[in-house]
Every structure is written in structure tokens, then in C-alpha cells.
């Protein structure tokens, strides 16, 4: 018998799954999504889930707090069998979770219990994980700790950024969600408990986490730059004698493999090497990293070659962290 499903989601990660629900035999009876946000110039941010729901004639709810009694009354009125949650952005109370007959399931962009929290994709790349995936679990009041109902695994590609991996995982979640929903409908779902000893945390990203630490090994710096794309972005400060430090966002980098650079004990983390007119490299605590694309403060993104053409780089030029650069 088809289920009555309510969707709770806001971010782009939820969109492919939300679209797919309309292609099943189940009925989407409501969407709960975050209140509309206004950006600079008072422009309204587009909420693609809300737009899709309105196109499909689905009732949309945008409460500031889904756990308020009036909101819970609206949820009860929908008589939903199941709540599907993905990138919603609010903590759900035990009272709310008890309203749908089959409870609520959550799409999480990691292989739980690894990387519990708001930023699992960022932390998977930061940690240098070789694999990740999507886990669907039964939501409990404790953070990301419910029974695992299904999971799918994928390798993390060597040059993959958080944005790239996010989009891949969002698509991978679609067939997994449909499988779990069908098992719940048939009564054949079997949940697996998570091992608390294996839990790692992936707390919310903030802009300050983008500050590059050149005292890390080159491989770690490369992971950091990939993890911070497209937000909060990895940044550093270009420092030269007699010049004010310039904030630089690094959008792409790689580990040189086709040629090597001479290093000595005098090389310091953050030292800049201009190999030729095409290659801009930086010394780390262990190894060299090549910068491919950069965006100086207030300017457009540019290639390393364009950056070198527009900035005088001397033997005293260095990239430094925000604290070091601005404390001088």
C-alpha cells in the first residue's frame, strides 16, 4: 500500500531524492523547509525544494522551529506514514519523531558512525578518507545515532572537492532511499546498531577553518584546499616586504609529480617557488604543492600564471596564515 510521505529538507543535497519521491507510487503530502532567506540587495534566495513542491501542488511549511506545538499539529493533520529528512537544518524533538507512523529516516553523506554532524563531506576529504558514501538511518533524538537502514559506498576521487563529492552523493542517495522506503512499507527493514567506539565528529563549517596552515605536509594542504571548495574556501595571505598582506583564496592546487624542486634546510613553510612562467609552488613542512588557481581579495579567479604576472614575487615573498600575516 502506498505511503504518505512528508519531506524535511532545505539544501541541494535533498533535491534529487525529493524529485524522485514524485516518481514513485507513494504520495508526497507535505514539505517542511527552512524559512526564506534574503541576501544582499534584499534578493530572495531560491529554494529549489520549495519551488518543486509548489509546482507539484504539495503543501509547504516553513517554520522557524518545527517542534512548536502549532507546527506539530499541522504535521499530524497530514497523517504521514513516514518523514524523509535530508539537509533540513533543525533538530527534531522526540514528540515530532513520534508523529509519522514509521518515524523519520535521515539521509547522511558519510558511512556512519564516521563523520557524524553537519559537515561530513568536508571532513571526509580533510581526513584523507579513500572511501565514503551515504547512510540512511532511523532518526533518534541523539545526533546521527539511530539504527542504520541502508548504506551505499563510493571511492573519493583524488582531485574531488567537497562540491563535486556532494553532487555525486546526492544522486547516489536516490536509489538507496527508494530501497529503504520499500522495505519499510513491506515490513522487511532490519536496522543495524552503530558502534559508539567508531564515532568521529564533523561539526559545522565556519569561515575561519579555511585558513591554510603551511606547516602541514603538502598532502594535507592539498586535502584542505579540496575540502574547502566551494565553501568556506581555503585562503592564505601573500606577504612581501614593504607591502600590505593580500588575502588570497586558493581554489585549486595539486602535488607536483612530473618534476621536482630543490629544497634545503633553509626553506621555510610558506616559501614561494616560481618554477617558470606557468608553475607556482609553495614549500610545506613536508613537500611542495603547486597552486593552480587563485582569487586575490576583490578580484576574479585567475590562473597561477596570471597571478604571477600581476604580483611581484621575490625571494622574500611568502604565503602565511591569517594570524601570522596580520599580527605583524
Structural notes for this entry:
The protein has 328 residues and is an alpha/beta fold. It has two domains: 4-198, 3-Layer(aba) Sandwich (Rossmann fold); 207-327, Formyl transferase, C-terminal domain (Methionyl-tRNA Fmet Formyltransferase, Chain A, domain 2, Roll), CATH 3.10.25.10. Helices cover 26% and strands 23% of the residues. It has helices at residues 15-21, 48-55, 69-78, 94-97, 120-126, 162-186, 218-227, 304-310, 322-327; strands at residues 4-9, 27-32, 60-61, 82-86, 104-108, 131-138, 148-155, 234-239, 246-254, 272-274, 280-283, 288-296, 302-303, 318-320. Strands 3-2-1-4-5-6-7 form a seven-stranded mixed β-sheet, with helices on both faces. Strands 8, 9, 10, 11, 12, 13 and 14 form a seven-stranded antiparallel β-sheet that branches. Helix 1 (15-21) runs parallel beside helix 6 (162-186) and helix 5 runs antiparallel to helix 7 (218-227). The protein is elongated, with a radius of gyration of 23 Å. The relative contact order is 0.11.
Offer a quick outline of the entry.
The protein is elongated, with a radius of gyration of 23 Å. The strands form 2 sheets. A 7-stranded mixed sheet has the order 3-2-1-4-5-6-7, sandwiched between helices.
Amino acid at each position: 500500500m502506498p505511503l504518505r510521505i512528508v519531506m524535511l529538507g532545505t539544501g541541494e543535497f535533498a533535491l534529487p531524492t525529493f524529485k524522485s519521491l514524485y516518481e514513485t507510487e507513494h504520495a508526497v503530502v507535505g514539505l517542511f523547509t527552512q524559512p526564506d532567506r534574503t541576501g544582499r540587495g534584499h534578493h530572495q534566495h531560491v529554494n529549489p525544494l520549495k519551488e518543486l513542491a509548489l509546482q507539484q501542488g504539495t503543501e509547504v511549511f516553513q517554520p522557524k522551529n518545527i517542534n512548536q506545538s502549532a507546527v506539530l499539529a499541522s504535521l499530524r493533520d497530514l497523517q504521514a506514514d513516514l518523514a524523509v529528512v535530508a539537509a533540513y537544518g533543525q533538530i527534531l524533538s522526540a514528540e515530532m519523531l513520534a508523529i509519522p507512523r514509521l518515524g523519520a529516516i535521515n539521509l547522511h553523506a558519510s558511512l556512519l558512525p564516521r563523520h557524524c554532524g553537519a559537515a561530513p563531506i568536508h571532513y571526509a576529504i580533510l581526513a584523507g578518507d579513500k572511501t565514503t558514501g551515504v547512510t540512511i538511518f532511523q532518526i533518534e533524538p541523539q545526533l546521527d545515532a539511530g539504527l542504520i537502514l541502508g548504506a551505499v559506498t563510493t571511492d573519493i576521487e583524488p582531485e574531488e572537492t567537497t562540491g563535486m563529492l556532494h553532487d555525486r552523493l546526492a544522486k547516489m542517495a536516490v536509489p538507496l532511499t527508494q530501497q529503504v522506503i520499500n522495505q519499510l512499507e513491506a515490513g522487511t527493514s532490519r536496522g543495524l546498531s552503530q558502534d559508539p567506539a567508531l564515532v568521529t565528529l564533523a561539526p559545522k563549517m565556519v569561515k575561519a577553518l579555511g585558513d591554510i596552515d603551511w606547516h602541514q605536509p603538502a598532502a594535507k594542504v592539498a586535502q584542505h584546499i579540496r575540502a574547502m571548495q566551494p565553501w568556506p574556501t581555503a585562503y592564505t595571505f601573500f606577504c612581501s616586504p614593504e607591502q600590505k598582506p593580500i588575502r588570497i583564496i586558493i581554489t585549486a592546487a595539486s602535488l607536483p609529480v612530473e618534476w621536482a624542486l630543490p629544497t634545503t634546510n633553509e626553506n621555510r613553510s610558506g616559501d614561494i617557488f616560481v618554477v617558470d612562467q606557468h608553475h607556482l609552488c609553495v614549500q610545506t613542512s613536508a613537500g611542495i604543492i603547486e597552486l593552480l588557481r587563485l582569487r586575490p581579495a576583490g578580484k576574479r579567479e585567475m590562473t597561477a600564471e596570471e597571478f604571477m604576472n600581476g604580483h611581484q614575487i621575490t625571494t622574500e615573498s611568502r604565503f602565511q596564515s591569517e594570524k601570522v600575516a596580520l599580527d605583524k
